[in-house]
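Page header: ASSEMBLY MODEL / two components / 231 residues total.
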Amino acid sequence: KAGVTQTPRYLIKTRGQQVTLSCSPISGHRSVSWYQQTPGQGLQFLFEYFSETQRNKGNFPGRFSGRQFSNSRSEMNVSTLELGDSALYLCASSRHTLDSQETQYFGPGTRLLVL
Amino acid sequence: DQQVKQNSPSLSVQEGRISILNCDYTNSMFDYFLWYKKYPAEGPTFLISISSIKDKNEDGRFTVFLNKSAKHLSLHIVPSQPGDSAVYFCAASEREYGGATNKLIFGTGTLLAVQP
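Prediction written out in full:
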């Protein structure tokens, strides 16, 4: 079974631009979550989508948004990029039921550099 | 407020010996815990998990122990191998609004170096 895939793997943008990152979950997984990893803040939860609905959101500004499609694929968008948005953005998928936690499996990440 | 803490930034062990990585948490509502292994610029790789209704879970060379009263969990790797050298993260999640959530709170990581 193919793992979680993320595109693009590397991205360079300048301040003020916007960016869209894409994630394809493991086949059969309906939940997709996004995380940001930076040297200073570590791994931080951005948001979770299940059945095209945002179920949970981390403590990030409104410039960070996401969506999920009917095939469970997900995108996240960052508008008006700031230097501090430079990070590794990770997507994770799980089967996820509403009754029990399921293991999340991570993709390889998208490395974003903002200049 | 760091809800999940890994107080040892690094750990060095000899090949064949036991590696013990520790993790403490403060939120008593956490009920699911996971350990991930990570290499730089790659996504975390799932190792093992444990539900709060258990106190031990084993999978091959990996065993996770959970002490709910102490709010402490540990990962034991026996025997340690050079290929185990990586950063190890513990993570926790809790039920919210009566349902399961995939919001993982991660610790800061422990760099494990296994010396040949």
